[in-house]
Design brief:
cell membrane, transmembrane helix, ArtM/GltK/GlnP/TcyL/YhdX-like, flat, transmembrane, MetI-like, mainly alpha
Length: about 210
């Protein structure tokens, strides 16, 4: 316990850093994922191509490489931001590709007749998607969206290698101070477990309230 009690502030700072990364990157991933899922089912061909390219590139790019591309590439175009914000962009964009596919799979579970009925009532594509299709699709994708965001929380550990304050990075300081590396990692694992179990609990509540009964 001395590893935790004597370095509680250090663990706390890293824990809060990981929570912030997870929350902000999750928000960005959900917004971009929804946007790209809309593009992928849009009647406009150029939008479908854009959505397909976005998903294909990001899903097949290692997250570490994406971090390098964002942190080292964007400043070359004059975009200089705090490292934490760069990490949020990298994590959010990467996860958005997976959120997009989860949402698209949910959209595909909605009977085609639902959209046709909405269009027969005079609704345009945006109205049909937002008021008819997505509310039904949302109920079936709650568990996989939760799993994707749990993966995002664990992927945030990569940010520590790019000078971003997060939970896994605390082991470097603890190792330099001579603390047991085993217990350092055990308490780090406990921190990640708290975060992932919290996300899981939130989505379990959502699934019980709005999920499709199976």
């Amino acid at each position: 316990m001395d590893v935790l009690t004597e370095n509680f502030s250090l663990y706390g700072k890293g824990f809060l850093g990981t929570v912030e990364l997870t929350v902000y990157a999750s928000a960005l991933a959900l917004v971009l994922g929804f946007l790209m899922a809309s593009f992928r089912v849009a009647p406009v061909g150029s939008f479908r191509v854009l959505g397909t390219v976005w998903v294909t590139v990001l899903r097949n790019t290692p997250l570490t490489l994406l971090f390098f591309a964002v942190l080292l590439g964007l400043p070359r175009f004059g975009l200089v931001l705090p490292f934490q914000l760069f990490a949020v962009i990298a994590l959010g964009c990467y996860t958005s590709a997976f959120i997009c596919e989860v949402l698209r799979s949910g959209i595909n579970t909605v009977p085609r007749g639902q959209g046709e009925a909405a269009r027969s009532l005079g609704m345009n594509f945006g109205q049909t998607l937002s008021t008819v299709v997505l509310p039904q699709a949302f109920r079936s994708v709650i568990p996989p969206v939760g799993s994707t965001l749990i993966a995002l929380a664990k992927n945030s550990a990569i940010a520590g290698a790019f000078s971003v304050t997060e939970l896994l990075g605390t082991y470097k300081t603890l190792n330099e101070l001579g603390y047991s590396i085993i217990w350092s990692f055990i308490w780090i694992a406990v921190g990640y477990l708290i975060i992932t179990l919290t996300i899981s609990a939130v989505f379990n509540v959502m699934e019980k309230r709005w999920g499709v009964a199976r």
